[in-house]
Amino acid sequence: MRFLEIKPLTPEHLPSAVELDRLCFGGIWAIEGYRRELESPNSDLLGLWTWDGAGTGTPPLQVRAGTHHPPPLQIRAGTHHPPPLQIRAGTHHPPPLQIRAGTGTPPLQIRAGTGTPPLQVRAGTGTPPLQVRAGTGTPPLQVRAGTGTPPLQIRAGTGTPPLQVPPTLIGIGCLWAILEEAHIIMLAIHPQFQRQGLGQALLLALLQSAHDRQLERSTLEVRESNLAAVSLYKKFGFKEAGRRKRYYEDTGEDALVMWRSGLEKPEFQQYLAVEKVQMCDRLNQKKWHWAIDNFEL
Length: 297
Fold this sequence. Notes:
- This protein is α+β, with helices and mostly antiparallel strands.
- Helix content is 22%, strand content 28%.
- It has an eight-stranded mixed sheet with strand order 13-14-12-11-10-2-1-15, sandwiched between helices.
- The longest helix has 20 residues.
- The chain is globular.
């Protein structure tokens, strides 16, 4: 299952943004340029992210933070697995092999029994031990850390827990708020993900941001030959207002200047709500799913 999420970029995302810039535009901005956009109060820099999640019945990877000692890494199976190996201390089993920490190199203590003893490693005041415990099903592996890094929890449904791939940045959108105008200066989708309706999602998010800022108009430039982009902007109410001769230095091509007004009006918010529903339906048909049900642009 493929998930989508639109959210503002943060400093740790900038290397991915520069790489996507290189793929889409040949490298217009370096990392310093994106950092300036993040620091500017008049700039909105949004990213479109995707990742593969688990299918039905198997929950995705969960990362949770504790307050003091983090909870352990737990891998739990269902009830259909064969019973586990059980290691229990009793009166018949020999005492275990113990390694305890002292002030220097810990001594090795081996206590004799009537058979092969289990191994227990015990620390001093530092990292608590690795524990393998038996239960009624497959025993969980518990790894407990100190007070630092929060834990990672992986829990399975009825089968093997899934491996979740980290999110990938596949789209960037940026606008400048200048007086009452929203200047959309960037809208890019990774070449491998184009023509799937993802550009509409990013444009819709930028227009929502302009509305939230109470900006009245939006403007942008687009290559005259980029018919797909021109069609997209016209779909969202942009109209051609002029052109800039030989605006693009690489080809000498003209740029169409397009405008859209009425962004601050209440009816524009209603328009965006209708477009969002239609857009989500189209994306669902292409097997895309938003990361949260109440997706808010």
